[in-house]
Design goal:
CATH superfamily: Spore Coat Polysaccharide Biosynthesis Protein SpsA, Chain A
CATH topology: Spore Coat Polysaccharide Biosynthesis Protein SpsA, Chain A
Helix content: 40-55%
CATH architecture: Alpha-Beta Complex
Number of helices: 8
Radius of gyration: 18 Å
Shape: globular
Distance between the termini: 36 Å
Number of strands: 10
Oligomer: single chain
Order of helices and strands: EEEHEHEHEHEHEHHEHE
CATH class: Alpha Beta
């Protein structure tokens, strides 16, 4: 990667972030998103086996801007698979943190600097987006999310994560890569929620960052209701039994570290 970003030293470690955008046939939206983020941090576009038109668009963006790198996956692996590949690649390139943002235009790019500032101030924490929806959100999606929220609270034995499905978050890369290398995590829409449960099981810090989320009229969603709902249901069942198996270890970690590891909603 031929991207350079200033290294800032926090109280505990060097903070060198990148912005990680998984892309699958979002050629119409990704260009404007990248443009708005160019001055904030280096950008890594992960092409998750997109169409030829999207590939050309991503190549064009990377050629035009020295601060943009492109990682291409030859076959579509799903959002989780793209994130895992991006994590490993970014860590190999020397980055310490990755700000994940979706390529479909749902997330408010104006909040990117807030997320990164939180990441710099709390380098060991995952900064997890907590959506503030506008009127564009489909009612079924809005209320259906709460079923997953309840299961995440049950499976994590914690209310630390206010919303596990928002794909707008800052990951400390060493811990994120350690989780995906040592735990079984999904490769599709189940990934965002699943990694959060493993994060809380390890008693790692969580900061919930409010952020506005909208659903563009011409936005492209790759959520496959039958496949992804099945995978999410399977994930909840697997995590539940995994929680029971790990229960002594989870409680032991929390007892040994009585200082609160999790923070609630930021103001």
């Amino acid at each position: 990667m031929n991207i350079n970003t200033p290294e800032r030293t926090s109280t505990t470690q060097v903070f060198k972030p990148c912005i990680l955008i998984p892309v699958y046939n979002h050629e119409e939206a990704v260009g404007s998103i990248a443009e708005r983020l160019l001055d904030i941090a280096p950008i890594l576009l992960v092409d998750d086996g997109s169409s030829a038109n999207c590939q050309k668009r991503l190549e064009s963006i990377a050629r035009q801007h020295d601060s943009v790198d492109l990682l291409r996956l030859p076959v579509n692996q799903g959002k989780g698979g793209a994130m895992k590949a991006g994590f490993r690649y970014a860590l190999q390139q020397g980055f310490t943190h990755a700000l994940q943002i979706d390529a479909d235009g749902q997330h408010n790019t104006e909040d990117a600097e807030i997320f990164l500032r939180q990441g710099e101030e709390h380098p060991q924490a995952i900064i997890c987006g907590c959506p503030i929806y506008d009127a564009s959100v489909p009612a079924l999606r809005f209320y259906a999310r709460y079923l997953t929220h309840v299961w995440i609270w049950i499976n994590s034995l914690s209310f630390a994560v206010k919303d596990s499905m928002c794909g707008y978050r800052v990951y400390p890369l060493l811990d994120a890569v350690n989780i995906i290398d040592t735990e079984s995590t999904g490769d599709r829409m189940d990934f965002d929620s699943e990694i959060m449960v493993h994060w809380v099981w390890r008693n790692l810090p969580v900061i919930n960052q409010p952020t506005k989320v909208s659903y563009p009229i011409d936005g492209i969603s790759h959520f496959a209701p039958w496949r992804d709902n099945y995978l999410i249901s399977k994930m909840h069942a697997t995590l539940f039994f995994g929680m029971l198996f790990r229960l002594p270890k989870i409680l032991g970690l929390r007892l040994r570290n009585r200082k609160p590891a999790h923070q609630g909603l930021s103001e």
